[in-house]
């Protein structure tokens, strides 16, 4: 009997075939023995394990001899070669394809990594066609019933539901209703099937039937399990009740937290990926995780040397797991090893939250609070998270989701703490064996060409030390340099390779110098120049425009150079016109910049880069606040072309996109002798901070920026920064701190003869005194500020300080006088086109009209203020005006509407940590406790 002719069917009624003819395996222990061998196909099964399967709880006295007797009888049925004797046990040695269960699992595995939904659906159909019913039908075994069959049935159910989800997307959902009802007849308590039935009914226009199906589900779950429907069923029920648009097939595949969106951040797989020894171990770990309890978050940690292929393997593993963790897939480079500082746990949590589309205003400052917000945001979702290039376990631990998720971590550190404390599955990657190294080289260079240069290929694998990154880069070099033999000859020259393989300094980066140098030497002059200068950039990511400024090129030339760098895998492009370098490559680029450019050229390149960032932030700020004075700027170098922004929205979008990069650039500039650029950039970001960034972050930046400007003797700059810091303290309700900073700014402007700055500070001090209740002092300061503006011809300052004077008169209960000041200020601001000033005037007019009970005029003014603050993207002050509108409505008897408006405004004000949030919240609470209040 030939083993390859044997066929085993276990998915349904038990059947063994030999060349298409049935082989009768007697019921009882013979079938259990064969089942035990089948479930460990190709692997030795110890005699003790077989005995436990055959005689659970009580093995025979002579278990080895007894098991051998049963094996001998089974051999006579299947053929002597089918069952191999191994040290201590036995192994069934037949091809995987001969067992329908293994074919079924192979098709499911291929479906998980299919390149398209159509391919996935086709593979699922093929797999499910093998299903014939309850597995191992006709085999009596507690072991099978309790440990094996439930797992297989779960795999079938998951595949069936995934197939239904895909078909609901591409066909009429109503066509699946009958099938779903039949499945529920067999599995009445499976909530996931009820979800799909209700969704299919609703999506096909049968809303009443969908509601009835929910009631049926509720009854079945209560009667058979004594539980209520789960959260997913209840949310779907509410959606049907409300008539919201159904999305067929969405229950499993696209669920995402409200306001978070569907994150699909995993990088694509490498085209030339080859298997490696650790892959089978990782796939077993993944299978164990997927079959385990869903209440845990599982961590897989890959560690190894630089260039060993950790990230490539992690991405491959993550893509294999995507089908199981479909809600959210997150990716973050933690920058644990490289030229820059590692991401702190706090910064890493913030980056993940930003990637989930949470606005910066809602992100707290503390690492524990950010970690808690991250867990809350991810709660209830099956999340796949890839944390690349971690420094240590502490950097990772704050980022772990709460439950039912998979986190894959890569690091050069062994992360033993993550294994001990967090139960991580830790796998250390070894260098590629020669066989796998040749396979990688063949995939990158071409199988026929590797065969033709077999000796050179083997030598190249040896010289590269099994490092996949080195092999990939050298294969690319060989494509353009005439073959592998020439590359090997160069690497065999000790003068060329001693720096790489025999550096003697223990620096792991050196292992890739030769590979990188050969790729670098083939670049055009422009591409080489851009590559070197990218090593000077302090942030992980750089835009095309910034790269052009750094290189001193036009955008078009820089684009062509970057295209070549991307093509040769020296630079990665994850988003259009945004580029990043791998840590190793960036380090090499920095070394090249230091060794091939004199300090003057380096400084000039850095100056161009910083000039570009500074004047780009100024250009954006000029859209946000057009009439602000910017006399602190110096001219920028030639070949720097700051971006132009069409409107406020475009400027705000650029600032939000570049904010992480700007933070890195500003910090680097301040720490490396370019503090003048650093504090000027912060000054240019003040309006953005006010409208979009939590004040605690902005305050931190301004404190050290003031020190930098003061140390440089820049009194005007120190004045601008002290004014900004004072205003932020004023917004937070910290009057004493605000007064301190305003007084410092006043002194700075007086020392530098800056009369308009002096006028601004007098007006701001008036606001602080007004908040304290000293309205006479507030009036005096505002009047003196107004006189200074008139004397110096500072027209915009007259508008600002007329508004401040109106606020002071309002505080003194002179409401008619306040209205007069605000109307005069509004006319000035209208003439010069200062929308920000007009918005402030309209709000203050509304408050004065309200105090006089002129409600119609009050609401009209508030409405104009809302319209203008929306034009300015000023969320904070828009919310404050909504609070004012709520007060007006409350006074005219619309308490319910006022409460609703206040509730919406409070949510925004809490994000900004505005002191009015607590006051309004207390009012709402009082109204709810006593509706007559």
TrEMBL record:
<feature type="DNA-binding region" description="OmpR/PhoB-type">
    <location>
        <begin position="1"/>
        <end position="94"/>
    </location>
</feature>
<dbReference type="InterPro" id="IPR036388">
    <property type="entry name" value="WH-like_DNA-bd_sf"/>
</dbReference>
<dbReference type="InterPro" id="IPR016032">
    <property type="entry name" value="Sig_transdc_resp-reg_C-effctor"/>
</dbReference>
<dbReference type="InterPro" id="IPR005158">
    <property type="entry name" value="BTAD"/>
</dbReference>
<dbReference type="InterPro" id="IPR003593">
    <property type="entry name" value="AAA+_ATPase"/>
</dbReference>
<dbReference type="Pfam" id="PF03704">
    <property type="entry name" value="BTAD"/>
</dbReference>
<keyword id="KW-0805">Transcription regulation</keyword>
<feature type="repeat" description="TPR">
    <location>
        <begin position="759"/>
        <end position="792"/>
    </location>
</feature>
<dbReference type="GO" id="GO:0000160">
    <property type="term" value="P:phosphorelay signal transduction system"/>
</dbReference>
<dbReference type="GO" id="GO:0003677">
    <property type="term" value="F:DNA binding"/>
</dbReference>
<dbReference type="GO" id="GO:0043531">
    <property type="term" value="F:ADP binding"/>
</dbReference>
<dbReference type="InterPro" id="IPR001867">
    <property type="entry name" value="OmpR/PhoB-type_DNA-bd"/>
</dbReference>
<feature type="domain" description="OmpR/PhoB-type">
    <location>
        <begin position="1"/>
        <end position="94"/>
    </location>
</feature>
<keyword id="KW-0238">DNA-binding</keyword>
<dbReference type="GO" id="GO:0006355">
    <property type="term" value="P:regulation of DNA-templated transcription"/>
</dbReference>
<dbReference type="Pfam" id="PF13424">
    <property type="entry name" value="TPR_12"/>
</dbReference>
<dbReference type="InterPro" id="IPR027417">
    <property type="entry name" value="P-loop_NTPase"/>
</dbReference>
<dbReference type="InterPro" id="IPR051677">
    <property type="entry name" value="AfsR-DnrI-RedD_regulator"/>
</dbReference>
<dbReference type="InterPro" id="IPR011990">
    <property type="entry name" value="TPR-like_helical_dom_sf"/>
</dbReference>
<comment type="similarity">
    <text>Belongs to the AfsR/DnrI/RedD regulatory family.</text>
</comment>
<dbReference type="InterPro" id="IPR019734">
    <property type="entry name" value="TPR_rpt"/>
</dbReference>
<keyword id="KW-0804">Transcription</keyword>
<keyword id="KW-0802">TPR repeat</keyword>
<protein>
    <submittedName>
        <fullName>SARP family transcriptional regulator</fullName>
    </submittedName>
</protein>
């Amino acid at each position: 009997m030939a083993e390859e002719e044997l066929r085993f069917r276990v998915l349904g009624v038990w059947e063994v075939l030999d060349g298409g003819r049935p082989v009768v395996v007697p019921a009882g222990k013979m079938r259990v023995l064969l089942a035990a061998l089948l479930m460990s196909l190709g692997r030795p099964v110890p005699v003790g394990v077989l005995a436990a399967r055959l005689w659970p709880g009580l093995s025979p006295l002579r278990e080895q001899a007894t098991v051998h007797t049963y094996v001998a009888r089974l051999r006579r049925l299947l053929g002597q070669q089918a069952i191999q004797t191994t040290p201590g046990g036995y192994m069934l040695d037949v091809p995987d394809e001969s067992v329908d269960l293994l074919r079924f699992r192979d098709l499911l595995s291929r479906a998980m990594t299919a390149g398209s939904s159509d391919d996935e659906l086709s593979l699922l159909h093929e797999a499910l066609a093998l299903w014939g019913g309850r597995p191992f039908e006709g085999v009596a075994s507690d072991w099978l019933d309790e440990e094996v069959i439930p797992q297989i049935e779960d795999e079938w159910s998951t595949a069936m539901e995934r197939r239904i989800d895909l078909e609901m997307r591409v066909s009429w959902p109503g066509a699946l209703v009958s099938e779903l009802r039949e499945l529920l007849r067999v599995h009445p308590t499976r909530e996931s099937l009820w979800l799909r039935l209700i969704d299919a009914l609703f999506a096909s226009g049968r809303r009443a039937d969908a509601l009835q199906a929910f009631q049926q589900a509720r009854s079945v779950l209560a009667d058979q399990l004594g539980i209520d429907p789960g959260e997913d069923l209840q949310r779907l029920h509410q959606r049907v009740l409300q008539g919201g648009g159904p999305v067929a097939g969405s229950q499993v595949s696209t669920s995402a937290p409200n306001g978070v969106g569907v994150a699909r951040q995993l990088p694509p797989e490498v085209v030339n990926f080859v298997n490696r020894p650790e892959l089978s171990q990782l796939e077993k770990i993944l299978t164990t995780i997927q079959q385990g309890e869903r209440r845990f978050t599982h961590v897989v940690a890959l560690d190894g040397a630089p260039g060993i292929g950790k990230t490539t393997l992690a991405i491959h593993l993550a893509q294999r797991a995507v089908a199981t963790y479909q809600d959210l897939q997150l990716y973050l480079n933690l920058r644990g090893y490289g030229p820059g500082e590692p991401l702190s746990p706090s910064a890493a949590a913030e980056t993940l939250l930003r990637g989930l589309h949470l606005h910066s205003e809602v992100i707290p400052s503390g690492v524990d609070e950010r970690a808690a917000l991250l867990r809350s945001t991810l709660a209830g979702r099956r999340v796949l998270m890839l944390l690349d290039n971690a420094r240590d376990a502490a950097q990772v631990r704050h980022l772990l989701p709460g439950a039912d998720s998979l986190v894959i971590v890569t690091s050069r550190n062994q992360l033993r703490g993550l294994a001990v404390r967090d139960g991580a599955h830790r796998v250390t990657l070894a260098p590629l064996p020669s066989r796998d190294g040749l396979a990688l080289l063949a995939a990158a260079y071409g199988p026929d060409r590797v065969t033709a240069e077999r000796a050179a290929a083997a030598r190249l694998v040896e010289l590269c030390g099994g490092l996949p990154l080195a092999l990939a880069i050298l294969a690319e070099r060989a494509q353009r340099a005439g073959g592998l033999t020439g590359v090997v000859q160069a690497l065999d020259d000790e003068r060329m390779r001693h720096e790489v393989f025999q550096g003697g300094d223990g620096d792991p980066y050196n292992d890739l110098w030769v590979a990188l140098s050969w790729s670098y030497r083939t670049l055009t002059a422009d591409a080489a120049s851009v590559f070197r200068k990218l090593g000077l950039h302090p942030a992980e990511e750089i835009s095309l425009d910034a790269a052009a400024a750094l290189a001193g090129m036009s955008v078009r030339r820089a684009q062509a150079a970057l295209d070549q760098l991307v093509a040769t895998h020296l630079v990665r492009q994850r988003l259009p016109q945004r580029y990043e370098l791998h840590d190793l490559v960036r380090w090499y680029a920095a070394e090249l910049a230091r060794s091939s450019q004199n300090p003057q050229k380096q400084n000039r390149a850095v100056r161009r880069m910083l000039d570009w960032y500074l004047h780009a932030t100024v250009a954006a700020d000029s859209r946000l606040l057009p009439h602000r004075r910017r006399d602190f700027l110096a001219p920028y170098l030639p070949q720097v072309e700051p971006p132009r922004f069409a409107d406020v929205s475009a400027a705000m979008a650029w600032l939000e996109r570049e904010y992480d990069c700007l933070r890195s650039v500003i910090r680097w500039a301040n720490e490396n002798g370019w503090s003048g650029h650093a504090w000027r950039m912060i000054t240019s970001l003040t309006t953005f901070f006010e409208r979009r960034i939590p004040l605690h972050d902005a305050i931190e930046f301004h404190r050290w920026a003031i020190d930098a400007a003061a140390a440089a003797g820049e009194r005007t700059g120190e004045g601008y920064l002290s004014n900004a810091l004072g205003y932020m303290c004023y917004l937070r309700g910290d009057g004493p701190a605000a007064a301190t900073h305003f007084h410092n700014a006043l002194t700075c402007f007086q020392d530098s003869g800056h009369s308009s700055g002096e006028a601004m500070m007098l007006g701001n001090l008036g606001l602080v005194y007004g908040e304290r209740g000293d309205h006479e002092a507030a009036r005096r300061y505002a009047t003196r500020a107004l006189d200074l503006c008139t004397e110096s011809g500072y027209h915009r300052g007259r508008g600002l300080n007329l508004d401040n004077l109106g606020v002071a008169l309002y505080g003194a209960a002179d409401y008619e006088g306040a209205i007069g000041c605000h109307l005069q200020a509004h006319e000035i601001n209208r003439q010069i086109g200062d929308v920000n000033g007009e918005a402030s005037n309209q709000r203050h007019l509304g408050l004065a009209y309200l105090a006089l009970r002129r409600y119609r005029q009050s609401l009209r003014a508030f409405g104009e203020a809302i319209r203008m603050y929306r034009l300015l993207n000023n969320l904070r002050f828009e919310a404050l005006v909504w609070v004012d509108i709520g007060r007006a409505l409350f006074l005219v008897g619309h308490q319910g509407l006022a409460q609703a408006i206040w509730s919406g405004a409070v949510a925004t004000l809490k994000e900004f940590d505005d002191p009015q949030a607590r006051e309004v919240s207390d009012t709402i609470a009082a109204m709810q406790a006593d509706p007559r209040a």
